[in-house]
Design goal:
heterodimer; A: alpha/beta; Rossmann fold; 2 domains; 6-stranded mixed sheet; 4-stranded antiparallel sheet; 37% helix; B: MetI-like fold; globular; NitT/TauT family transport system ATP-binding protein (chain A); nucleotide-binding (chain A); ABC_transporter-like_ATP-bd (chain A); ATP hydrolysis activity (chain A); ATP-binding (chain A)
Chain lengths: 258, 274
Amino acid sequence: MIEIRNVWKRFDDNVILENISATVKEGEFVTLVGASGCGKSTFLRMLLGTDSPSQGSILLDGKAIPSEPDSGRGVVFQQYSVFPHLTVLENVVIARAFERSKLGFLWGAAKKAAREEAAELLNIVGLSHMLHRYPDELSGGMRQRLAIAQALILKPRILLLDEPFGALDPGIRADMHELVLNLWRKHKLTVFMVTHDLKEGFHLGTRLWVFDKLRVDPQAPNAYGAGITYDLPVGACEPELLEEIDGSLSANKQAEEI
Amino acid sequence: MKRLINVRPSRVWRFGLALLPFAVILLLYISASDARLAENPQDKLLPSFTQMGDAIQRLAFEPSKRSGDYLFWQDTLSSLRRLGIGMAIAASLGMLFGLLTGALPVVNASFAPLLTVVSLVPPMALLPVLFIVFGLGEVSKVALIAIGITPFIARDIQKRSLEIPREQLVKAQTLGANSWQIIVRVLIPQLLPRLIDAVRLSLGSAWLFLIAAEAIASTDGLGYRVFLVRRYLSMDVILPYVAWIALLAFIIDYALAKFSAVAFPWHAQQEGKS
């Protein structure tokens, strides 16, 4: 479904991403891990359409991926994903309002139907007792549940998650993993998730991409960008491999710091 | 003994401590006024509270001998009308310019520099221009307030709309929103409480412009009256008028704050957190 062809990303002289090529099939759950600043979030932004490759192309169903965010690609950021001025329920209803009315407001029966649909979805993510609260009254975990519900109401084909659980406690994180896996299976989504937690990558999804520099020039650390150093099917690898990847990531990081 | 920075007064103490400076100023005034009046009963500089009460009684509750109007209320009404119309125009224009320059990079490119330059022009220096263009009537006074306040509000709203996290705008786009829907459903609702904040902050300058315009060319208004009776050294009118202006300003500010808290409960929560 998605084809990535020799994608490069440069900012001035700094090469961020270097010659990335990959193919992702419908329904895959790809986890992107790597050291901070290695370009995995940049890559996600290219899939989202808020950033574009300096060279190369990303194809969706054989056509260039739209260079502007649209309702085919849902997104959850680490924070600021929800609208603070709307209640939990309205935060989800607003997606239908955008879709079904030119002005952005729903009335009467359409509004009622959208509210019922939203309430149902919020029930699935476990927020049915918070429908009329504002996001600032919610805990971090609840806010991310809301952001996920909001991203899913329009049933996008692709769901992009940018370190969605980075700010959460480990216990809550486990709950959220469960939720995301369930929703992924149920809605047959194609998911890309960025995380800096390698274990999360091994636990979730079907495929793991490790972003790291293939070459390092100690005199010019920014001369080479990151590529996909490992592309692994999840569940089929040994714990030693995890340690090895972990080791190589930190080794490169150290080399850069020196 | 706790460190001084950790000593917090209880509620009762806080209330008492808040009243204390007012009481001290009042006492100082009364004793100074008494001393001067004891020396010379005709003294006009520090009138007693009875004299001020008489002056206000005369202006507020007896019709003027010349026109039959109740001058105090007439002045208040005229001034509040000018202030209200001027602020309404400034708030609407400021919101419009601020929103468009904040939300649309194309508009920003052509209008933001202009806005910066315009906001650097001292509005008081434009007053003669306004008098020449609009005459000495109501329009020039309202225009002074509007021209003086609009750039401030516009720049504030522009800054605030740029402060709204980009993630929210991207999120709205992934929910299929077009530019209009994002402006109407995401930006404007979040900017309205900020507009009220900006109006509250600029009310002080608005009063300044109002009183200056009234002092120069007017036939009624609080500022007009204060400057008129200055000729007769009528401190017994000036002081109560100044106190009344301060009270009006306080009431307007308080009402706006209350309105914001009731109409935008989520905004109060955000403010509490940050």
